[in-house]
Amino acid sequence: MVRKAKISDAERIAEIHVFSWRTSYRHMLSDEILFNKLNVQTSLNRHRENLSTEEQTLWVYDDGIIKGFMAAVEEGDFLEIKAIYIDPAFYREGCGAALMSFAEEYAEKQGISQMFLWVLEGNSAARRFYEKHGYSSDGVRTYREVLDAHELRYSKKL
């Protein structure tokens, strides 16, 4: 069900990216960000570029319909999860858990000993999801000016 993303998946990945942000971050980020700066075409261009350059590894949850995606970057002994988004129509169906498990198995096969990610401080649902999967805040907090929001770094030793 989880597989490496292909260029032909970019449009669906972009849709999921935009729909997920607008649903999940509706009360955390401004309308300017969610409805003016964020759009499917811009997201599509970015994901096509990422898929063609392979700077990031992108995986999709695909059971006949692409329901979610994850982007990750290897950095030495770490695997950083850059993004994990599920189409809101398929929330709570196990897609996110499957992507997390797949990434952790991938990391272990690569000899990577730790994973980390950044999560919006106010995103309690995502924080609970990561904590359920063994991640915890390591005390690092940063301000993302482009989002006008704070993020916390979560990590997990494998």
Automatic annotation (TrEMBL):
PROSITE patterns: GNAT
Record has Acyltransferase as a keyword: yes
Residues covered by the N-acetyltransferase domain: 1-158
Stated name of the protein: GCN5-related N-acetyltransferase
Record keywords: Acyltransferase, Transferase
Molecular function terms, GO-annotated: acyltransferase activity, transferring groups other than amino-acyl groups
InterPro entries found in the cross-reference section: Acyl_CoA_acyltransferase, Bact_Acetyltransf, GNAT_dom
CDD domains from the UniProt entry: NAT_SF
Native organism: Salinispira pacifica
Keyword hit for Magnesium: no
Source taxon at top rank: Bacteria
